[in-house]
Amino acid sequence: MLSANFHETPYWWEAAPIGEPLQRDLPKRCDAAVVGAGYAGLSAALTLARAGRDVHVLEKDTPGQGASTRNGGIASGNLRVSFGRMTELFGRERAKAFYGEGKAAREDLARFIRDEGIACDFSLVGRFTGAVRAHHYEGLARECELLERELGIEAYVVPRAEQHGEIGTDIYRGGAVRPDIGGLHPALFHRGLLERTEASGAIVHGRTPVTGLRPDADGFEIETPRGRVAAGDVIIATNGYTGRHALPWLARRVVPVASQIIVTEPLDADVMNRLNPKRRMFGETRHLYHYFRPSPDGTRILFGGRRGAQSGDPNKKMGHLYRYLLRVFPELEGVAISHCWWGYVAMTGDQLPKVAVHDGVHYATGFCGSGVVWARWLGRKAALRILGDADSETAFDDVPFRAVPLYDGRPWFLPAAIAWQGFKDHVGWY
Length: 430
Ligand SMILES: Cc1cc2nc3c(=O)[nH]c(=O)nc-3n(C[C@H](O)[C@H](O)[C@H](O)COP(=O)(O)OP(=O)(O)OC[C@H]3O[C@@H](n4cnc5c(N)ncnc54)[C@H](O)[C@@H]3O)c2cc1C
Prior knowledge:
- The structure is a single chain.
- Helix content is 32%, strand content 23%.
- By secondary structure, the chain is of the alpha/beta class.
- Strands 2, 3, 9, 10, 11, 12, 18 and 19 form an eight-stranded mixed beta sheet that branches. A five-stranded mixed beta sheet has the order 1-17-13-16-15, covered by helices on one side.
- A hairpin with a 2-residue loop joins strand 18 (354-358) and strand 19.
- Helix 2 (39-50) packs parallel to helix 6, helix 2 (39-50) packs parallel to helix 10 and helix 4 (92-116) packs across helix 10 (371-387).
- The model has no long low-confidence stretch (mean pLDDT 95).
């Protein structure tokens, strides 16, 4: 199934290669340091630098090596807890505030890309979520009705009989369409954000891992193998790449979960027109769900999922994804795969994204696999909070950021948790 020129690197890196960072001297002192150069860190740095702060971004690897150039580029601003369930957990007003902020964040991303002139193939093509069981379809219908009524978010169901107008498969029992969700080229978006961040005066230091962080008289002292930096404020934006040792408080709160994507060779236009007539983004109602989309040029299918992403052998590693791709689109039997890669998303105990302050350190993290919208938005919110700007307010301000019980950064429970999700899918729990 591997094509002759198979790559184990993201398809996205062909249009936007990850460049080696320039090595610049570290400052002795700066107004603010941001740790991590993905969407969240860059968005925070851009906001601070445009407000006149002297900002340095410290990145362990090459800027963009994290999830921000590896993702599916589906700009959903998803919350993993449904609106209906959120209402039961937090009450109607707070559920409306969380979902309302998702809407604001999606709209703000579109505005930002347009105003900044970032060429990243952003397009509001809509997302179709396939119901894997008949009762899931009923659940989707209820959720659409709530989103329309409570938040004015356009959402509607498409019955199985009309499904081929959305997706060329019979595997789903109908599904739901969200026209307000779109897609972008994640690595071009990251590059656009990086260029604007650097142009704003922030300095981005690649290959500069933060190995420790201590409060000092004027803020914080940050340790790196390249030297120490004193900073008045610190924002941590390391998400699924946090690791265990450097930032132990955060390490106990975010669980890195691998997600991977395979890409088909270019398909004939008539095949693409049958499989994805509207060139939509796709999801489904499984707990271990798959997400898929067309390439921005509309010729390939990028197909992602979370199960078994880390194995040494590419054939084994992508076997489950390939098999499921063929279950959704049987006519792709024999199609060759040109790219396969994986990366880490960060899950939180309550499955909500976080913007938090602990011991004076700011955090924007825990995007639970939906950071294209949330990471940029909450990175900016963390920066606005440092600036004392009233716009820093968010619905997530008062949500506690609790440690995951019995967890020290080693996700020993993941195999069992994944098996449990698989079991729920097997019996059809929604
Ligand atoms: C395969 C895959 C598919 C995905 N698909 C989607 C999707 O379709 N839609 C969506 O919305 N989201 C998706 N996501 C999630 C999304 O990519 C992330 O939520 C988002 O990129 C997180 O951005 P970030 O800036 O918080 O973190 P990242 O982009 O992961 O950046 C964190 C950075 O911190 C650095 N770092 C870590 N520790 C240190 C340290 N000690 N010192 C210095 N630097 C450090 C890392 O090197 C890394 O560069 C996907 C993720 C993956 C992996």
